[in-house]
Amino acid sequence: KKVLSKGAWATLIFRYQNWNRAKGEFGKDMFTIRRYQKRQGEYIPKSKFNISSPEQAQKIVDALKSWI
């Protein structure tokens, strides 16, 4: 995980793999961006965006690089 921002609203990005019990192995890399709101000292999940493939992740990276 990487923390992109923190404070009253926190944004994190995660890289993970699901475990396939039938095959006994991990699946492909997956990514998700999550937003949390801090209320009364606890972070409450508010929104999420799942990146469906490494190709989509690369397109997001390329778009951000062209803008910045």
Task: Record keyword descriptors for this entry.
single chain; four-stranded antiparallel β-sheet; 21% helix; 1 helix; flat; two-stranded antiparallel ribbon
Class from secondary-structure proportions: alpha+beta
Q: Which regions contain 5 or more consecutive residues with pLDDT less than 50?
A: none
Strand content: over 45%
Strand count, sense and barrel status of the largest sheet are:
4 strands, antiparallel
Number of helices: 1
Count of DSSP E strands?
6
Query: Any idea what the shape is?
Result: flat
Helix content: 10-25%
Radius of gyration: 15 Å
- End-to-end Cα distance, whole Å, is 23 Å
Side by side, the strands of the main sheet go 1-2-5-6
Mean model confidence by pLDDT: 95
Order of helices and strands: EEEEEEH
Furnish the topology, listing elements before pairings:
Layout: E1 2-5, E2 9-16, E3 19-20, E4 25-26, E5 30-39, E6 42-51, H1 54-67
Antiparallel strand pairs: 1-2, 2-5, 3-4, 5-6
Task: Give a description of the structure.
The protein has 68 residues and is of the alpha+beta class. Helix content is 21%, strand content 53%. The protein is built from one helix and six strands, in the order E-E-E-E-E-E-H. The chain has a four-stranded antiparallel sheet. It has a two-stranded antiparallel ribbon with strand order 3-4. The longest helix has 14 residues, at 54-67. The radius of gyration is 15 Å and the shape is flat. It starts with a strand and ends with a helix. The mean pLDDT is 95.
